[in-house]
Amino acid sequence: MDPGWPEATAVAVMDGKILSVGVTFDDLMPWLDKYPYEVDDRFKDKVIYPGFVEAHTHPVMGSLAISRPTLSHFPVRSPYGPEIPGVKTYDEAIARLKQFVADAPSPDETVLTWGYDVLAMGEDFNRKTLDAISISQPLIVWDASEHNAYANTAAIDKYDITPEKIKGVIGAGTNPDGSSNGQFLGTDAARVLLPQVIAEQMQPGAATKNLNYFGALMQQAGVTTAGDLFFGGVDMGLEQELSRTYFATDASMQRIVHVVDGFSAGKAYGAAAVDKALAMQAESNDKAMFKGVKFYADDAFVSLSMQMQWPGYVDADKYKGLFMYASKEDFVAAMRPWWNAGFPIHVHSNGSGGNQVTLDALAALQAEKPRFDHRFSFEHFGISTVAQGRRVKALGAVVSTNPYYVYERADLSIPQLGTDRASLAARMRSLVDQDIVVSLHSDTPVGIPSPLLEVWTAVNRIGFTSGKVRAPAERVDVARAMKMVTIDAAYTLGVEDKVGTIEAGKLADFAVLDDDPLAVDPMQIKDIPVVATILGGKVILTADTRHP
After folding, report:
1. Closest among 210, 189, 453 to 322, alpha carbons compared
2. Average model confidence (pLDDT) for the chain?
3. Kind of pairing between the strands at 288-296 and 255-261
4. Is residue 128 classed as helix, strand or coil in its secondary structure?
5. The whole model's pTM is what?
6. Fewer CB within 10 Å, N side or C side of the chain?
7. Domains along the chain?
């Protein structure tokens, strides 16, 4: 992925870093004449790329979600066995929930399920429907967007969800008496319930098991670096401990780039939040790096709770969208101290309305204090307009987009967004043609980390359900798509000086593939096996991660 030295046949590694890259083996000789060396040619018939960079995941929250009993509409990849079939109907979801409750190890243990897809199923859960499954076993359904949750009476009581706690909270459903109706829709409402549930199920022993599950999935997909775009959002203290005891150690099969959740940092540290984050940054090492801060503009694409500009949603009475701040001024005020302190800011911005207010906020910050190379990143950039893309360029921002919005969501979203806007989800070609840096990500648990599937989607833009090409003019070529999961993803996270290319001075991180995405039929890219990953020169065979 070094455009000036694009292909090679040999790479010299010393002390975990790339010493030299040779088009031929002889190109390495100035260094090999200086140092004793060993030749490892076990991959001589394979193809090596820079280790893939998964630009936006949620390791703590995501590892818990994807390792729970699943209600996902789409098949879910497992690192330790066959793919888990998707749930196709509401009745099938009910049947699975009953089985999950029956399989619970104790009557007091919370049954936490993940992946329910209301858009595919057509029906929401609530307290009453979940009580019909169990009135005594705490039961929580966490939806595919990761922004919504549903709870039965036993769970509401267990986690002390009182009328006082949900009063005035956007998206928290209530009964006439003010008590919870079991629906927690949107980030603000989900924060009332989910953090304590997740923290309960992510104590050190369980957390390590879940993170190993997640790490195996990423290794098998060729990922060597991942962005953690919600650091502290579950439990600041717990996550700092996991960073020290797991991510920064040899236990982790990936490097991690922690991006602090701005809301959670403010809640934990108040006015000292920026200084606390700077202190974390100073503790970074090559395995666990702290870079940037994250904010939310609007809500989720998956549940169609993102904020849309006119004409909005087809069913405007049902789908209205949620903005996370009372006003643009409040949004700017939340980001201002971080901007002034020089932090790269990542904003979860999905709908055209969310993208517009994020652009306006960035323009306001730039007017107050101009910055160069600020790496302000639009995370997802789900539904956007041509004008918004041009303004991203004018303001010097980057885009990290989610190809699962094309692959899994476009077909499901057409009835509410219209064919044109749903098909244009996750624009790519129209952005890169303006020389905007665009990276790809899974936003796990929204999608399972699969850079080659992400590349396949960027190249083909085929919907999972229909098999139709969605917005073919937004397709990119394979070489560009591969940049999006290597050097451009590293740039988005601010670690392009360490990873993303096979280049002298970089960390020796590689993905070993059975074939070359540039050489195979584009329809076969997602099926190329990952033979191994190499992290700091140490080989991890995929065959060795297929068991706990």
Report:
1. 189
2. 96
3. parallel
4. helix
5. 0.94
6. C
7. 52-57+222-529 (3.20.20.140), 61-200 (3.10.310.70)
